[in-house]
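Practice problem: predict the structure.
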Amino acid sequence: MDSLLRENDVTPNKELAIEALNLNYSFGGPLILQNLHLELHKGSRCLLVGANGAGKSTLLTILAGKRMVRDKVNVFGKNAFRDTPSGVTYLGTEWANNPVVRGDVLVSTLLSNMNGDRYVERRDKLLEIMDINPNWRMHLVSDGERRRVQLVLGLIQPWDLLLLDEVTVDLDVLVRSDFHLCDFSQLYRIPFKSPIEGLGDWPTHVAHIKRGAIVALHDFYNDFPELDKMITKSLELRTTNEKDTQSSSPSTAHLRRDMDSPLLKVVEQWLRQDFIELRQLKDGEKKKNQAEQDKVLLGEELPRTNWDGLSDNMKIHGDKYYNYWR
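Answer:
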């Protein structure tokens, strides 16, 4: 179980595990990912932080080889979709909603189907960490217990790259803490407002994704000035509060308000600023659309539809959508 338990910190090496260059992706509409650049070396443990709709899940599924893209996306030097390397494990939120795993099936049956008998020691250790009874029936367990079963099934087989998409949100604090103590060389996503206590010494990198692009990738130990500033501010505030406590009553009520993780505070600042910028963009688009509608109502311009946009884009669509009758 040396590959599962954290006995020593993992030191990233020079070989790239993930390489995404100028990545663009859409579902047929506006770009979800645009000019995204991300490089992570083997042994990295990266927190991927971003607001709802920023493109976190889309990026993880692309790295897992579940979506085909034109741009360069390599995992361990191989194309993530066409030549998906072995040892890539992706765990997402959709598994727990699968009606199959909500049926009357034993956990032991699921473990056998995932070759749990081949990795007995690894399986037993995971069952111990996640506190799972193999005799559980999946239709009788809670959402948190079902999520723990998913993690065990996904981690039974050895992996080289682990991609986790909000799979710890249903876990209680104790199980989440034990899970974070495992040795994981992975790209790990945390959703906003999910508990991230205990992660302060876990990541080697923190990536901030905003509107489909990586706007910051910090080395957690060597290049993270925002976190350093927040830690310094927290220490200064705590020192001041302790002096006030010694000089007056020994109340600790004011200390409780300042016990949040510095990393959590940095992430909150990022996402709050993202929210403000997104709201400003939406307000600008709303005013622009309103102005165009006013021109149409006043007869200054003709109404314009999506078909008009397609017909004008001759470079991409040729004359497929061109309106010869207007």
